Amino acid sequence: QVQLVQSGAEVKKPGASVKVSCKASGYTFTSYDINWVRQATGQGLEWMGWMNPNSGNTGYAQKFQGRVTMTRNTSISTAYMELSSLRSEDTAVYYCARGSLGAVAGTLIYYYYYYMDVWGKGTTVTVSS
Amino acid sequence: SSELTQDPAVSVALGQTVRITCQGDSLRSYYASWYQQKPGQAPVLVIYGKNNRPSGIPDRFSGSSSGNTASLTITGAQAEDEADYYCNSRDSSGNQVFGGGTKLTVL
Which are the contacts of B58, defined by CB distance < 8 A and separation ≥ 6? Predict the structure, then answer.
């Protein structure tokens, strides 16, 4: 079945980096985007960025520019998210999610939509001294 | 960047209809997608596009949009619908944005 399997929990010290993996199975890895979304305890969902596994193109939320890097290894259908200069506020559950873009024809223009239909179970990253 | 605004909490009596709304400028150009999240679980897509439901999502879930407001309607809410609901949209720069989430309580 279609699924995304994430790597296990991490504990890091402030200033360190963490690299989370997301292995896709059950579909063609290069045909869909991979998004990364995080959620601190008791807080809402926060989008971090996306990657096109086919081209390697990426787009990052402004908040994470300069600190996050999203990469992939197509030979093993795996995406990676690396976050550097960790601080306590980065303690959260990190999710990868498969993304797709669609469009609906309107009267004069197309209306686009984007959706994330398959999610990993999440990776807990704890940043503590 | 753009923002999406949701009511923090909404309640509904069992079997009744509830509408959860999401407001934002990006919704004038992009349809929202909606995600349900239960405690300790990953989000689940429930509505996307104009009004599309992924396989396995009950037809009591529906979506609509008008101007800068997207709505998720649950017709005949069930106890298992109690969860947090998040709207999501894509802005003109290609970035995604989530609403702050709505906690739905089924009474």
Answer: none
